[in-house]
Amino acid sequence: MLNIVLFGPPGAGKGTQSQNLINKYALVHLSTGDILRGEISSGTSLGLAAKKLMDEGLLVPDEVVIGMISNKLDQNQDAKGFIFDGFPRTVAQAEALDQLLVSKQSAISGMIALEVDQEELEKRLLARGKESGRPDDQNPEIIKKRVQEYTSKTAQVANYYQAQNKFYTVKGIGSIEGIFENIAKVVEKLG
Ligand code: B4P
């Protein structure tokens, strides 16, 4: 199985490049951000609780997102692999993901981290906020909070995969196609 974690700060291009990966490798896309936004638009109690945190730029509790991923893995038993987009975002989530995959006789093949500087991230998110109306993309203070959450809780997840020799970086600035070519080069090595 080919299981890829696509990693990077908010706005690095994870969602964008996940689409390219799905098209080329026919993997199942699991984006915790998308799943949470789905819960919000369906008005579930999980969605209502998550919305408060997401609108403030804060992470949703580990047990909530781990439960969501566990359900999705169970629902996709025949998948030939997964792209994990925006998950794991804490070391506890990374450990839980390893356990879930072990129970399916599988493992993470590699983490690909997209590297983008802060100024560019803020520019992209504010531009998307204008187009999409996504509440967490519209306010520079909330974007700052998301980057702080990334720095204090998420960045260390890279060390977790580095320790397993599963960590790869790709420059995330430039054309979407050019960045994808470099991502695909890493994926070919993993596959
Ligand atoms: P996400 O939905 O994961 O949001 P994100 O980090 O902003 O990444 P996204 O994938 O959407 O953006 P992308 O970089 O593709 O999370 C939202 C919130 O959900 C979190 O803040 C948190 O509250 C919660 N959450 C989600 N997962 C969680 C977890 N595991 N644990 C706890 N909480 C969780 O794209 C950004 C913009 O850049 C786009 O407009 C795109 O068009 C543009 N772009 C992309 N590539 C470009 C390029 N090369 N050049 C120019 N623009 C580009």
Task: Please provide a written account of the structure.
By secondary structure, the protein is α/β, with parallel strands linked by helices. The chain has a single domain (about 1-175), classed as Rossmann fold (3-Layer(aba) Sandwich), CATH 3.40.50.300. Helix content is about 60%, strand content about 15%. It contains 9 helices and 5 strands, in the order βαβαααβαβαααβα. It has helices at about 15-25, 30-40, 45-55, 60-75, 90-100, 120-130, 140-155, 155-160, 175-190, and strands spanning about 1-5, 30, 80-85, 110-115, 165-170. It has a 5-stranded parallel β-sheet. α2 (about 30-40) packs across α3 and α4 packs parallel to α5. The radius of gyration is 16 Å and the shape is globular. The site of BIS(adenosine)-5'-tetraphosphate (B4P) has 27 residues, from α1, α2, α3, α6 and α9. This is Adenylate kinase. It catalyses: AMP + ATP = 2 ADP. Pfam families: ADK.
Tell me what portion of residues adopts beta-strand conformation.
5-15%
Indicate how many domains the architecture comprises.
Answer: 1
Structural class: alpha/beta
The largest pleated sheet is described as:
5 strands, parallel
